[in-house]
User: Fold these one by one.
Assistant:
Number 1:
Amino acid sequence: MTKLGTVEDTLFIPMLGRIYAAENCPQVLSDEKALSLKKKLPDRIQRKKRQRPYTLLASASRSANMDRFIRDFLSRKTNGVIVQLGCGLETTYYRIDNGRTLWYAVDLPHVINYRKTLLPQPEREIYLAGDAFEKGWMDRIRADVGDAPLMITAGGLFHYFREEKVIALLQNLSDSGETEAVFDAVSKRGRKMMERKYMKELGYGDVRMFFYVDSAEKLADRIGSHTKVLAEEPYYACIPRKGLPVSAGISMNISDRFHMLKMIHLKLQKN
């Protein structure tokens, strides 16, 4: 079986979150595909110390947020194409595919190889092995779809890279035709909290986090090229609290109140 590195190994965190939500809190996220894969995950992952409901629901909430932004995009852009950077083991396609949209899933070669063992490539989701921060994947997609509008998602990806690398990627995307990008981000305070507490709690205390966003408008200014902020919203703003474990609901409220986590939606354009 493909061996994964420490950072890539974190791709199991969102999968476990989606499974937990599907089993216990379907009002947050329903994911039958993730449930079907539960028994296929590596033994070491299933033996890991159990996460708290909050950390599990944080992962599920990211997927629920991404689903919402993608649905909105496809309602506005009926010929739109979805590109998931750092796709890991995400199962968005199986949750919200509309039967006609073309999807691309981009990740490092060994992650894509592992993904194929659990999620064989479906009819309209094309797997691309490569570095999300290089241009090869975009060249391939534009060759396939021409000038179709693109929605680029980056769920749980940017945290682990330095700001200049993320900004360079977003600047490159500005040169790629009609493109929107949606991603989750932490604030400076949120980054410190995640490193000091949550990553250690998850068993990944050695993983460093670099990228944070305190202001989407300031980030847009750094990207330049007439980048427009379409949304900057608290991470849990649209996540229902009713029926959740009390401790998880309290943590969500604190996170939103102090702007520790957020969803950012940008329109990337050259002019």
Note: The two ends are 46 Å apart (CA to CA).
Number 2:
Amino acid sequence: MSYHIISIDESPCKLSVSRGQLLARSEHGTQQIPLEDVASIIISSLQCSMSNHFLISAARARISVIICDSYTPAALLLPADRATDTALLRHLADMPAQLRRRLWEKTLTAKCLNQHKLASGWLPEHPSLEAFEQLARSNKENREGDCARRFWQLFAEAAGEATFRRGREAGGCNPLFNYAYAILLSCILRNLYALGIDPAFGICHSSRAHAAPLAYDLMEPFRPAFDANVMRWIRMQKEQGDDTWRQAESCITRDYRRHILGTLLAEVGEEEDTIPLRLAIERSIRSFRAAVLASQTTPYQAWKLTNIKWAGS
């Protein structure tokens, strides 16, 4: 079973395949792993070279190769037999507005409840949690924005960062979240393409040039899982007296990249079992696909955060 997520950030680095082994050569030596154990390869290095044999071997092994630009996915390479499912594409393009709205409501409810669950792990006695949960379960028109404001306020308090404000272009620890969400987006896109789903047709986010609105939609419930690991990283750095995470130009270290990639392998609750978050993402997207084909919301299981071992740490 393939399960390893390989991150290539050494510069320079050369990737190749020999006798069923993935080889990564850099100035620090050669590392190898059986190709059959690899689920995906994320390339962040700007000086990474790949042979045609490597690309063909990855395709035969059904491995996705994600190429990043400034930690954001720029290209996704998949086997040719994983092209878009045309029947599914028609269902997405012709989806009734009511079904689209109901699928989004299910997605949004999961996200808001996950934010509340995580905040409860950070500050279990906080007086605002009850109102936060009521808001998350409501049908209030602007509940996404209202829940987000409550969530980030509680994050700032729990992290001991009173001046923190969440913003993609803001400083402080915001780049940590930007990178974490880029990894999440990569995983969502990989699963969408792997299941033949064209991400150009969203259920809430607007379609625009060079965008993947459906990926932005379906990643929403999973953001809190990455938020939890960002919080864990900040607390670890504070315990060690390391302040580099505050410096936007240098906070995305190799150790941080490895830490965040580990989020996809974290054990999370799934019914009466625990599974890696990566698999929970795949299952959720499979259920979304089934809902689209059935033209009803019932099959769609928007992921709920029931257990993350380090959520409250």
Note: The chain has ten helices and ten strands.
